[in-house]
Design brief:
Blueprint (H helix, E strand, L loop, with lengths): L3 E6 L3 H12 L4 E7 L2 H11 L3 E5 L7 H11 L7 E6 L5 H9 L4 E3 L4 H12 L7 H11 L6 H10 L2 H11 L4 H8 L3 H15 L4 H10 L5
Parallel strand pairs: 1-2, 1-3, 3-4, 4-5
Length: 220
């Protein structure tokens, strides 16, 4: 199998060097480039076409949120790199804005090397690294939702009954294996449904499903 190609974006050179060492310690990961600000990150991603971008939130020239939005907008729809936000704080309002811009989750900069490696693998496989409780904490603090009948009707109209069932399970932060067990289907089938749901709702990642459902009060 081809290694997972990774770009690291952070304005602290020492931090980037440390992350590079972590990446190079895993045989299935490959460090392919880095950038010191969001504007440079957009160019590096276009040049190297990585699978994963580890993106700092706060940087000069262009921050990680706008850089994530630009990367998603400029990428081939069939090959959008997955962005993992790097943050110093567990409860960081900027994380939600990055997720809305297309990020697939976040990890804190004090994460262990083992956790970071596993997070990269999970996101590359289509999972997210925003834990359900962390999601709830962030949304409760920064994105109070209110029920929208129009949005609820739109979701019902766009999704098949099975897709709606999978949507609600994914919105609660369940893994593919947990969804498969709850819906009595295979994990492969779950992945197919999740991909269809993302496409129909115009979302970029599973964690955006959580935010979308919460902000539109679609969870009972």
């Amino acid at each position: 199998m081809e290694p997972i190609r990774i770009v690291v974006v952070d304005d602290q050179a020492l931090f980037v060097s440390g992350i590079k060492m972590v990446i190079e310690s895993a045989a299935d990961l490959e460090f392919v480039g880095s950038a010191r600000n969001g504007r440079a990150a957009v160019d590096v991603v276009e040049d190297h076409r990585p699978d994963i971008v580890l993106m700092d939130v706060r940087m000069p020239v262009m921050d990680g949120i706008e850089a994530t939005r630009e990367i998603v907008k400029r990428s081939d729809p069939d090959r959008v790199p997955r962005v993992i936000v790097l943050t110093t704080f567990h409860r960081d309002e900027a994380v939600l804005r990055a997720i809305r811009a297309g990020a697939s989750g976040f990890i804190t900069k004090d994460a262990t090397p083992e956790f970071m490696i596993e997070a990269i693998r999970l996101v590359h496989a289509g999972q997210s690294v925003l834990a359900p409780q962390a999601t709830v904490d962030l949304l409760t603090r920064f994105a109070p939702g209110s029920r929208s009948t129009d949005t609820d009707d739109r979701v019902i109209a766009m999704l098949s009954p099975r897709e709606r069932e999978i949507f609600l399970l994914a919105a609660r932060g369940l893994s593919n294996a947990e969804i498969a067990a709850a819906a009595f289907v295979s994990e492969t089938t779950v992945k197919t449904h999740v991909s269809n749901i993302l496409a129909k709702l115009g979302l970029q990642s599973r964690v955006q499903i959580v935010v979308f459902a919460y902000e539109n009060a679609l969870l009972a």
